């Protein structure tokens, strides 16, 4: 289901809530692949969930890589290399990745490099 880019803080919060709910639906499939999917690592799915909600073609490897790289770069930038941490909880990490993936996907879709 394609959704428009959120325009207000409440719309962003609704989108993030829906994205986390959508990502949680993958937990049973993790067992089939031998990967335990927990709330703590759901943020890894944020770029693909975002692409799905925006109606972007997640089979497009170039776009998928750009969206994932943007989300990962933002996550790393908001993480502490010394291990002290910025208080980035799993849900906050998912939020950061979803918002970043959304912006990167939007810019890429509009033809920017």
Structure write-up:
Helix content is 61%, strand content 0%. The model has no long low-confidence stretch (mean pLDDT 76). The chain has one domain (9-109). It is globular. It has helices at 9-24, 27-33, 46-54, 61-77, 90-109.
Outline the fold blueprint.
Blueprint: H1 9-24, H2 27-33, H3 46-54, H4 61-77, H5 90-109
Helix pairs in contact: 1-3, 1-5, 3-4, 3-5, 4-5
Number of alpha- plus pi-helical segments = 5
Number of strands: 0
Order of helices and strands: HHHHH
Distance between the termini: 26 Å
Q: What can be said about the biggest beta sheet?
A: none
The average pLDDT score comes to: 76
What value does the Rg take, in angstroms? 14 Å
Category from helices, strands and their pairing: mainly alpha
Low-confidence stretches: none
Share of residues in helices: 55-70%
Shape: globular
Q: Please report which band the strand proportion falls in: under 5%, 5-15%, 15-25%, 25-35%, 35-45% or over 45%.
A: under 5%
How many domain units? 1
Give a short overview.
The chain is mostly helical and 113 residues long.
Keywords:
5 helices, 0% strand, 113 residues, 61% helix, mainly alpha, globular
């Amino acid at each position: 289901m394609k959704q428009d880019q959120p325009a207000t803080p409440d719309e962003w919060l609704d989108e993030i809530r829906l994205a986390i709910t959508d990502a949680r639906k993958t937990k049973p499939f993790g067992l089939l692949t031998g990967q335990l999917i927990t709330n703590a690592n759901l943020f890894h799915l944020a770029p693909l969930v975002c692409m799905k909600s925006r109606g972007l073609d997640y089979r497009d490897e170039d776009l998928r890589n750009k969206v994932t790289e943007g989300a990962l770069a933002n996550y790393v930038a908001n993480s502490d290399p010394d291990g002290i941490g910025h208080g980035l909880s799993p849900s906050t990490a998912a939020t950061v990745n979803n918002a970043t993936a959304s912006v990167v996907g939007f810019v890429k879709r509009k033809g920017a490099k």
